[in-house]
User: Which sequence fits this backbone?
């Protein structure tokens, strides 16, 4: 059985290493601006999100970063899984499944109604893995995002140019 543990203060550099490894896998290294200090603040002081590590012989080999969201239709919270990553050397050995099993347990234990996440369209191995868990793709939904510049433009009431 694969073990998982919650990240604790002092783990911010380990979390950052996983974020950078995920970004490299997703070809998005230039998008990472997180620092150990920002992670310390937002994860352990503000508690904006939580992190689970998949463990192998006392070593972190995967991570899942998640936070509480809310379903208006269910009328109760859920969990949004922002990122999940297992080191390539440890894939196919049950560590991803262990992280999802732990997340499912946390979701139910807290009385939450569902676990949501998104996946890049091109990431076929991940999509196949999620289906193997019994997850259903929400093909009828399109994800949107306002980045920091978009937020500033909108908050200032400036035209978006679209």
Assistant:
């Amino acid at each position: 059985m694969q073990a998982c543990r919650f990240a604790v203060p002092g783990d911010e550099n380990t979390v950052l290493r996983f974020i950078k490894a995920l970004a490299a896998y997703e070809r998005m290294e230039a998008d990472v601006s997180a620092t150990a200090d920002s992670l310390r603040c937002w994860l352990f002081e503000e508690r904006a999100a939580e992190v689970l590590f998949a463990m192998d012989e006392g070593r972190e080999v995967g991570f899942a970063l998640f936070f509480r969201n809310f379903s208006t239709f269910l009328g109760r919270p859920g969990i949004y899984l922002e990122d999940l990553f297992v080191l390539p050397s440890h894939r196919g050995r049950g560590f991803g499944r262990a992280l999802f099993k732990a997340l499912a347990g946390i979701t139910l234990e807290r009385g939450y109604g569902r676990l949501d996440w998104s996946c890049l369209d091109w990431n076929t191995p991940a999509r196949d893995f999620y289906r193997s868990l019994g997850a259903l793709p929400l093909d009828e939904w399109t994800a949107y995002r306002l980045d920091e510049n978009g937020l500033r433009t909108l908050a200032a009431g400036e035209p978006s140019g679209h």
In short: DSSP finds five helices and five strands in the chain. The beta strands are 3-6, 50-56, 59-71, 76-86, 115-117. The longest strand covers residues 59-71. The longest helix spans residues 95-109.
